[in-house]
Fold CBM1 domain-containing protein.
Amino acid sequence: MRRTLIAGLIAAVTAPLVCAINSQTYTWKNVKIGGGGGFIPGIIFNEKEKGLAYARTDIGGAYKLNNDDSWTPLLDFVGDANWNSWGVDALATDPVEPNRLYMATGMYTNSWDPNNGQILISDDYGATFTSSPLPFKVGGNMAGRGMGERLAIDPHSNNILYFGARNGNGLYKSTNFGASWTKIANFPSSGTFIPDPDDPFDYNNQIVGLAWITFDSTSGAAGAATPRVFVGVANKDESNIFISEDAGATWSAVAGQNTTFLPHKGVLSPSENTLYISYSDGAGPYDGTNGAVKKYHIPTSTWTDITPVSGSDLYFGFGGLAVDKLAPGTVMVAALNSWWPDGQIFRSNDSGATWSPLWGWNGYPNLEKYYTFDNSLAPWTGSDFVDTTPGTLQIGWMMEALAIDPFDSNHWLYGTGATIYGSHDLKKWDTAHNVTLRMLADGIEETSVRGLISPPTGPNLLSGVADITGFVHDNLDTPRLKSYDNPKWMTSQDIDYAGNLPTNIVRIGAGDEEIKQVAFSSDSGSSWAIHYGAPDGVHGGKVAFSADADTILWRTDGSGVLVSRNQATFTANNSIFYGASGNVFYISTNNGATFAASGSLGSSTSVSDVLVNPGLTGDVWASTDKGLFHSTNSGATFTSISGVTQAWSIGFGAPVTTGGYPAIFAAANIDGVGYFRSDDAGVNWVKINDAAHGFGAISGNVLTGDPRIHGRVYLGTNGRGIFYGDTAGAQPPDTATAAPTSSVAVVTSSIILTTSVADPTSAPATSQVPVTSSTSAPLAGATAAVFGQCGGEGWTGATICATGSTCTTSSQWYSQCLPN
Ligand SMILES: *[C@@H]1O[C@H](CO)[C@@H](O)[C@H](O)[C@H]1NC(C)=O
Ligand SMILES: *[C@@H]1O[C@H](CO)[C@@H](O)[C@H](O)[C@H]1NC(C)=O
Ligand SMILES: *[C@@H]1O[C@H](CO)[C@@H](O)[C@H](O)[C@H]1NC(C)=O
Ligand SMILES: *[C@@H]1O[C@H](CO)[C@@H](O)[C@H](O)[C@H]1NC(C)=O
């Protein structure tokens, strides 16, 4: 609710004007969770240079493979202005000049992303990029993002590229290395498949469009455009694979095709003159209950169905598809989503005539695993997200990316909803039928971070993370052994500690409907207890813990502001809470039971963050769409901080000198959008991020300083995990001119709160980037059959069970209708 502007209250600007902003050099590193944490829709090897490969993600940019199996991020320069470039919908690596790299970037084709997409172009393996804007949106985090690749380079004339667009925009072509693009007007189909035309969230109601482009490198010769090109389109019950025999001048549907399912991948086996195609009945990446694998022999125009399983064994679609370029006839295909008992991959060494699986049944419920499992690079997955028992999806889900190294038949990689797997002993599949399955996403940090705290005692950092709940970061540089447990929600939406008793921590969850969404720890996050006073089915929002850990204030998603006291003892003013909404600041002196409007925040219309100084009575900061505001009288009046025109997440850090006023970190607009630190209570600021570190969309990010290390800041992104920054350059001059104001004794009745807790009538400010990598809300559907699936993360089908059966959870990922 927009509040009436109270004019004049903040008329006087008391701080001196800020001149040019100094910068300080920072060293930025990822806080290591280890091994991904989100969906990997594409893995692409270069056909010419051994060892060159890339992985693309849907919300966190793209990575280049190193020769030690680790990955290096390529799009960390992406900042707020070009945030949608972290959604990479397609990637192409040049088969002629391997230094050339292209990506089609853009996050959403709906209103969530106001900007059109672009082709990012590099001629130095992704070290630097130029951008070629497209006249339409690109959907790196839309349905069908694992289909592909929808961007391809002509292997005989690498100045030529094709890009298959979404949303009815058709097929585009460049003849100048991606610099400019022209629509191919006579391409026959721009796509008709829409995952859910009635999606009330305006997400699955978009046309998926063109899915992949595959040049037939056996046609034509180097130096002239490749004549034969295949294009797969997300169509059902109408032609969905098209061919040109004249380098894109004319197109027709490939004769004899079967249009029952959507073609996800079209992979050429040059030595067999054959195009292999994987199909699913959904666009993915979450869905798919039926599908097929087919091959098309080009010289004879012959189609052959080579689907590895049939009948009741075929309860999934197919996604990832790869051929071994060094071993003609060796083909691998992944079940896109076999949600139970595990994902599945099939391998054939006779062109699909026969297949062998990655696991088989060894007398229900036991699985015979034709692999050994090694998750040492992402150990948190073992105890928490994949397990060694049946029914827990050890080998993965959302498997759209599958690739065999064109220079090494033993080296393969595949992407899942959470990480990358692979090995260097793939040929053992055909001999011992026993490969080593390793998690190989070291260097990839793809989480969407929702909350960060750095308490003054205990571990320096605790996180709340989407999809994989969050972690105690007692070491910033080593992979996490486990995430929060008991409760382990999908997402920990926010986290706070008690100012006077900082080993006491509260966190709230989002995403799971069936369990309570508030939990406490009294040992710095090592162990947790569910707050049984929390109402069922209420989740999300923001949480604040009172200074003495006796009162929780919870601004829920959709259920107003709730207050809970878990201990009986209270001290005076211990449980004052602040809140803000619009331009009104609120104070509650009765444990959050009621709030009264207090000071005004200028002309602000939305508040991002509220920060309370635990060391100085009445010292409060609020960041808004109109600036940064400071109060020294418990919010009765505010001063607008000069030079700050907008601010998002704000946090305190250690003061320059012990006992001084804490450093303030701000995601803000101060002569430009970026990340800043002030060591003198907002008088002077230094910019702490640089051109190589943009951190994506600023409104989606969270930050906090470290109260123990001056200059240290933790920054949580929406798709590139958590970073920590430390000062590396000298403190710029004139940045601590104001005397530290904190000579006042620390109050015991200090106030702890978080964003926008008050105004229960107001909708919370939401991030401009609302959807994370591998989550989707299950939609209520029709009735599931007995023994059918009825739930699990990502499930979009029926959730009601047939009469006589009950929906029973077997894992986070799978619920089944079991007979009563
Ligand atoms: C097309 O494919 C579907 C699914 O694989 C199959 O059931 C159907 O019989 C096929 N149609 C023809 C004409 O082969
Ligand atoms: C695969 O090899 C591992 C390690 O040698 C072994 O423990 C496992 O039993 C083997 N699996 C099969 C199915 O042979
Ligand atoms: C092909 O695969 C089968 C079954 O996996 C295996 O028995 C056979 O030895 C393989 N052939 C070659 C040439 O690797
Ligand atoms: C409690 O807080 C109010 C408002 O900030 C202040 O006026 C009062 O002095 C405080 N009382 C104590 C005992 O600190």
